[in-house]
């Protein structure tokens, strides 16, 4: 079973974000915050296309050299875990472990090339869930990619509840992908979080999306302010 002891820097691309979160052209024109984006290239590519994205992650307290060193320190570990658990993944758009490494490293290099400028422009903010330094409803859409639910064991239920409440505070809509924990099983927190949000001033749905790399990981949670 694929497992990691802690959250690691591992970046996805703009195209992957579009598919993971079923982002429409209209969605991309909204005020977007990415929570726990790490070394994803979503912000860099979205900015180049004229969209507005703020990314938050505690890794942004470091400079580009330090982040690159962190990536290098975990890169082989992640790929080795994938090699040992190849059946947990769908090898369609990405056809091999070697290609996965190339795709992920390309996204992370795109991030690293943009990071110094983006940090100066205020697009990369050193901040971590469950406390974000923004007024309520500062954003239209908050995204969480491969953090909440994925690290179910490592982060725990109290963190998940507080993190989702905080995302709902700063944005009118929240989308979380995937709903699987490491190892490929649906997180035990999905239904509990959905019930908690559904009992407050939010509408919750589980939506299929046009993306699947973790086998069975083709759904996101969508939480909308009523």
From TrEMBL:
Gene3D superfamilies: Vaccinia Virus protein VP39. InterPro entries: SAM-dependent_MTases_sf. This is SAM-dependent methyltransferase. It comes from Candidatus Methylomirabilis lanthanidiphila.
């Amino acid at each position: 079973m694929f497992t990691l002891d802690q959250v690691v820097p591992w970046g996805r691309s703009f195209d992957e974000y579009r598919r993971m979160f079923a982002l429409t052209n209209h969605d991309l024109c909204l005020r977007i915050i990415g929570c726990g984006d790490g070394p994803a290239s979503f912000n860099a590519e979205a900015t180049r296309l004229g969209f507005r994205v703020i990314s938050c992650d505690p890794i942004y307290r470091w400079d580009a050299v330090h982040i690159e060193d962190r990536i290098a320190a975990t890169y082989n570990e992640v790929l080795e875990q994938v090699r040992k658990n190849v059946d947990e993944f769908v090898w369609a758009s990405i056809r091999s472990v070697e290609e996965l490494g190339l795709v992920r490293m390309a996204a992370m290099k795109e991030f690293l090339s943009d990071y110094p400028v983006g940090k100066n422009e205020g697009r990369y903010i050193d901040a971590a869930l469950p406390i974000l330094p923004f007024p309520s409803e500062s954003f239209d859409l908050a995204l969480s990619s491969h953090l909440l639910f994925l690290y179910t064991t490592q982060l725990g239920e109290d963190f998940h509840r507080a993190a989702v409440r905080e995302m709902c505070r700063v944005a009118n809509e929240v989308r979380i992908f995937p709903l699987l924990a490491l190892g490929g099983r649906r997180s035990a927190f999905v239904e509990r979080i959905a019930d908690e949000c559904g009992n407050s001033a939010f509408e919750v749905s589980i939506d299929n999306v046009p993306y699947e790399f973790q086998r069975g990981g083709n759904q996101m949670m969508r939480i909308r302010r009523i």
